[in-house]
Request: fold
Amino acid sequence: MKKIILDFSKPIENIKVTENTVIYGLFIDVAHLTCQNSPCIVFSKNNISLDINVKAVINANCVFDFSPILKVSTKQKGIVANLRINVLNNSSNSIIKSTPAMEIKQPDVSVSHSLAISSFDKNQLTYLCSRCLNKKEAEQILINSFISDIMKATKN
Amino acid sequence: MSSKIPNIKKLYTRPSNLTKLFRQENSFKEKFGFKDNIVYETILEKGINKNIINKISKIKKEGKWMREIRQNALKIFEEKEMPIWGPDLGDIDFNSFHYYVKASAKKEKMWKDVPQKIKTTFIKLKIPQTERRFLAGVATQYESEIVYQKLKEKWDKLGIVFLDTDSASIKFPEIFKQYFGKIVPPTDNKFAALNTAVWSGGSFIYIPKNIKVTIPLQTYFRINLKNIGQFERTLIIADEGSEIHYIEGCTAPIYSSDSLHSAVVEVVVKKNAKVRYTTLQNWSTNVYNLVTKRAIVHENAVMEWVDCNLGSKVTMKYPSIYLVGDKAHGEVLSLALANKGQIIDSGTKAIHKGKNTTSIIISKSICLNGGRSSFRSLVNHTKGASKSRSNISCNALILDDKSQTDTYPTNLVQEESSTITHEATVSKINTEQLTYLASRGLTPEQASALIVNGFIEPVVKELPMEYAVELNALINMSMEGSVG
Reply:
């Protein structure tokens, strides 16, 4: 399976999917950084599966705007695509925007996307603090856990 | 319940009955697409200009303040560009429509006094029967004006106001001036400006403090003449602690030339109040349906939009919720069915401004025979809307490769403690389900209709029984011939 890693420090160009593919994206902010990307993902063959897993950790003043668009034309049959965007927001001075769009012209597909934007789970933080970790350490553990699947997949 | 109302449980379990039943009485043309030969009292010439605005204002015997609002809105309409996003509206020729048409000389409170030909139309549409069965109040708008309106005495005594908007602007000018054009100003978009310039008819509802209206108020809109624009203006004010359910339905005959329906709906939901606004839109496929609907929701109040879009040539409608008070809650349930030649561009907007505000958005869309359905939403958790939560769910069924379905959900967060979750799916009808139903003796058409009815069930179950049955019938009519 082909693996693509999105590099948010560069403008993300359009992506043409020619075989079964997994796309990973990880954005960890730096203060006053602006990330604005709107990749257009198209398919060039039938019966392709695509899994997109994007995670962002927002800590400081920054703008995260990730708005991909998935397009399936009339000719592409049997496409199975899933787009997941998860944002961990730990900043009250940032702007997080996402428009995961889809344009589907073929019925023989199964396309889905999901998005979640939230801050740290208070229960998890409380539990970790009750185990003698200070708030920063507890938050770091939660961040590590949040991004672990992408870190493992992109280790090499 | 009347014996004429089919038992929905039976219909679900015996789909062959469902198809048979609705096939007997239904084809769109017979049921909704008929034309009436009415002698009109007033038909203003086609086109929009200052002269037309002044004529409308004069017919309605309006004060100077309203005439100025109309003239100012006309300027804004002329200056504003057409939307650069969404469906192509380039074919609309604003000078090809009549902006004011009046069918009846006066509004009637007794059904027997409504002119016979108009009455026949609404009898065909089952309005008086519907009222007799369960509704508290019914208003019917034919072309530009309300022709019949009635509110049960019980509600009248409690101080509930249910009037056509024209009468309300004269009877309650203070409250009218306070809210009219404040929630949807004419500067909002080109079609809001157009409506403000030429508005006529619509409903004005005021529910006093702590009054809970337990049965729905209803308005039915009918376009009969060809090349007509219908521009009703609806204003609903639910005072503190009150509750109301408002239902509107719309139909029109089929013509080869286009008609335009551009309404504006403004809703104010005050502290602890609850408003549900249900629409069953079934315009014929020559009607441009470009509507602006917005609700301001105050502290601990609830606003629910239930929006079913089945008809029209092009629909652009995004019922909005502005959650300005703390702990305010908004819900949008929308259903779109885009058949041959139709573009249904619907969605919603939820703007969270108060703390601990919540919103739920559920959208179901079906496209077939070359129709196009698009879901467009904006959920914005603004700075200060701490601990706000939103959940958006958008599911689409695409039934053939001539059709298209799109989703454009924009999610914007500017507050650390807020949470948004969103999910969307696009798929065809599950073949395993089809095979199973076929093995139980259903034709592919019946099986598809049954699956589609199951798919839209989260929206249908929120409708009153008669509307749920009507909606199922319309869906089945649309599904006819869609398989094989």
Summary: Chain B has two domains: 1-31+430-484, 37-317. The first helix of chain B runs from residue 8 to 13.
